[in-house]
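Researcher: I need the complex structure. Ligand is 4'-deoxy-4'-aminopyridoxal-5'-phosphate. Inputs:
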Amino acid sequence: MSTAKRLVPFGTTIFTEMTALAQKHQAVNLGQGFPDFEGPSFVKDAAVDALRTKPNQYAPLAGVPELTGAIASLWTRETGLACDPRTDVTVTAGATEAIAAAMLGLVNPGDEAILFEPYYDSYRACVAMAGGTPRFVTLRAPDFRFDEAALRAAFTDRTKLVLVNTPHNPTGRVFSRAELEQIARLCVEHDAIAITDEVYERLVFEGEHLRLATLPGMAERTLTISSLGKTFSLTGWKTGWSVGPEPLTRAVRAAHQFLTFAVATPLQRAAAVALGSPPSFYDELSATFRAKRDALCDALHTIGFRVSVPQGGYFVMADFSTLDLSRLGLAQGADDVAFCKALVERVGVAAIPPSFFYEHKAEGRTLARFAFCKRDETITEAVKRLTALR
Ligand code: PMP
Ligand code: GLN
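Model: Output:
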């Protein structure tokens, strides 16, 4: 009898594992990245309205015209790049499906895909599902920059694509213009495709979110992926999209039509309403999250963690090797998995052990990833519990 392919170390994702452990130990869950508060009423009301007053049958494969049109016009307004919603936009079941569809539609067995590690775990699994070969470029703590020579060395004559996530999960890096220019130059030189995962595009606290697609030579070779989940605190809606030139969009749709075919129709209509938000909505969002970041980072620092303060996104990476681990019943030198397990069991706070995001596990061994997309009370309660480590 054949058994399931092993796409992740446990058989289920580390997020699922940690959330189950958090529930079991009644821990404060700073593990899986989802807000413990609701998204805005105007978006939920738009969904209810669509559900009640508009047809609830299959949406077109590429998405409902209201949403593909809204995505295309926002894209053109923000980037100055042309975008035809009929040929350049695809609505998917979250960014997760867009990533999978892009990999399955673009990568042939034998093709190489360059991933920066630590990576969002689905990238590695999707390259495997497509039969491709992953190559890794390491972002090293504490500043999580990449070495240009290492990136250059990762490109070969088999490189099909490079996947760039900015703002980055789990490190919180917002890639600089210089870094994106290095990536762009190598893509052009090697005639490679870039896939960018920009789900945290509106959560930028330091620096500026730059889109790789806008750099010279990149518009024709970049597929940009985003979703509603993070920007509108509606992670359960699983409504995402990709934007890219017709040949790349054709590849995404080739897979998407057999993965899900189409995405929940009323949620797409509500997503179109959400994307009509004024810039002040995004300013408020990032100010709110910046305050949460500051509260958690300051507390972790005071407790004694070595904190890599994130420039964007939902997460902070903190090095625990500076703490007295005997408080957790651990020997000094315990790894991230042991640390996070003891933390949830003994302190009642769940975090994610980042070695799951690394091919070179040792790079993540002294780190823990904490999510700050939580109510202020939740962060305060987590900090109160974590103070036991001081
Ligand atoms: N990319 C990154 C970097 C993420 O952190 C996540 C998960 N939150 C996703 C993609 C998945 O997004 P979605 O929920 O829209 O599928
Ligand atoms: N993106 C979320 C995180 O990084 C998890 C989403 C999931 O559970 N797949 O924590």
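Model: Summary of the prediction. The chain has 14 helices and twelve strands.
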